[in-house]
Amino acid sequence: MNEDFLHYVWKFQKFTNTQLRTISGEPISVVAVGQHNLNSGPDFFNAKLTIGEQLWAGNVEIHIKASDWYAHQHQKDAAYDSVILHVVWEYDSEIFRKDETTISTLEVKSCIASEVFEAYQKLFKVKHKWINCEDDFAQIDSFLLKHWLERLYVERLEQKAVKIEQLLKAHHNHWEAVLFELLCKNFGLKVNGASFLSIAQSVDFSVIQKCSHHQIDLESLLLGQAGLLEGGLEDVYYKALQQNYEYIKHKFQVSNHTVIQPKYFRLRPPNFPTIRLSQLATLYITHKKLFSTVVGIASEAVSEEIIKKLYALLTVAASSYWDTHYNFGVVSAKRSKKMTKKFVDLLLINTLVPVLFCYGKRQGNSMIDLLLQVMMRTVPEENSVVIKFNQLQTVAHHAFESQAVLQLKENYCAKNRCTECAIGNAILKGKVTLK
After folding, report:
1. 47 φ/ψ angles, rounded to the nearest 5 degrees
2. What is the pLDDT of residues 271-306, one digit of tens each?
3. Where are the domains of the chain?
4. Whose C-alpha in 82, 107, 317, 406 is 20 to 30 A from the C-alpha of 44?
């Protein structure tokens, strides 16, 4: 038994008996179940109940056993003084508030529909599954999935917007600085994301702007901060960058002591930190006011045209030295190190769309419809989570849906939040027959 299940039962009133009674025999009439509280404090706020002949307004607390009230020390917490009903699976103890008044208790183990409990048991039965409902995911109605994934993606955008707001506060609402920091992190991808973020955070954005007039200045700054110019290689370009970095380092009093060293291990050469940092430098040499440019493109409000212009904006190449190198001093076949569409897609999905969403909210218009159209015209990411979901049922047709299933896995499946998930609810309501 799990308290989450009892939360679900109370929230959706999944009782076989409509004539609920307290342990003392008083009838209970539910006017409002209350607002589900996922933080500290009672489980449901602002419920309205008629107990006996008295109308009550207050909170509802839920436990497996009544005695859990004391195990959790609620009798000492003033936050629980406003509890008007204690809902328990098993009544094993009388419960009192801090002022020693009795709290009405509802025992539910005999008044929950058997099929609901059986579905719950099967859903949460330990089978070493990737997700609890993986055997039956293919049976989930496509209409239900479509609308649930839309909610999940908006939820994911909202969560990212909270983090962006925190960055804006730290940067005194400097949108260009925040965009640079987020782009830097995502240029590092999963392996070097933390490293590249530490590079961005090690230098004030004003220094980035002052070095964005010449490729060698910005490239030497980024590579130098990454600790990639600290050797003694006999390479002309390497020595030029090294010398230039020492000048910039002294001029702007920058330090790389807090920077996390980037990694090369298991990276394909196009993702080497040397290539990605050079491409980032090129992007800011080419577009010195990148955020303003992105907002200007988005304001056109035609999704297909926006995507084309954003791709044109972001598709830049590393400096010419890297045409014949992936690392310093090691010559390779000549090939322009231009950013691929796949990489630009990731920048669009993980950086530009969330930033535009947050900016739109600030302006009183979330641009959500436009951004959803952009995401629906962008190919889905290829990662283990998306691939696995598509094996169960093809759900990620575009980036909007691939981001949604990532949200589903990370925030619901991995945390066993099935009772808060539309798919889990469909199963518990008997709309899907578990195998």
Report:
1. -80, 155
2. 999 999 999 999 999 999 999 999 999 988 677 888
3. 3-112, 127-170+379-435, 175-376
4. 406
